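Moderator note: this is an archived Q&A kept for reference. The question asked for a predicted structure of one protein chain; the sequence and the answer are reproduced below.
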Amino acid sequence: MNKKGFTLIELLSIIVVIGIILAIVVPSVVDTINDSKEKAYNTTIESVKAAAESYLNFSFETFKSQFSSPGYVEITVEELIDEGFLPAEIKSPLTKQPLTGTVTITKLSENNYVYEFNE
C-alpha cells in the first residue's frame, strides 16, 4: 500500500517549529514598529517646533512685549494651523489622532530661545 501525506507527528513538529519561529520574530517586529512610531512622533514634534520658530520670526512684533527677560510665549498647534505654518491634518503618529498641544518659547538671552513642546 502506497501512503501519501504527512503523519500526525510530522505535522505537529512543523507546527512547533513555526510556533518557535513566531515567538522569536513577533516581538522583534513589534519593537521595530514601536521604534518607528516613536521616531515619526519625534520628527513631527520637531516640525511643530520649527513651525513655531517660523511663526515667531514672522510675527515677532506681536510677541515682543511678552519676552521681558526672562519671558516666554505659548503658541498652540491650532494657532500654527490657523496661521498656515502647519498642515490642517497633522496627526500624532503614536495615536493617529489630531495633534494638540502648545509650544513654549522661552527667551534665554538676546536671539537665544528654547522651544519646548507640551501636550
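Archived answer notes: The first strand starts at residue 72 and ends at 76.
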